[in-house]
Amino acid sequence: QVQLAESGGGLVQSGGSLRLSCAASGSTFSLYDMAWYRQAPGKEREFVAGIRWTTGNIRYGYSAKDRFTLSRDVAETTIFLQMSSLQPEGTATYYCRAGTKSCGYSWGQGTQVTISS
Question: In the predicted model, what is the mean pLDDT of residues 19-42?
């Protein structure tokens, strides 16, 4: 099993910044990617950003819009999402997902991000 621990969510004013963290533990020896998704109330979960673990290749979803930056700490098996210029439409629960060959996809519990106008 893979366990994911997310942190860093909270309440921020429009235009502000937040940094989310997601630490993976457990059966991570066959980890091949990690990613952030988000889900707003009444909407489908959408891809925000992800990284191919073996190559470090990063890709962003439309919602990232050049305002989000994904980075990682390989030694700690942790990814970060630096979010800036946040807007109220970015209010959502942000989920971390890890893909491993041994366990398939695992999801974190989510961290709430609320952006006030």
Answer: 96
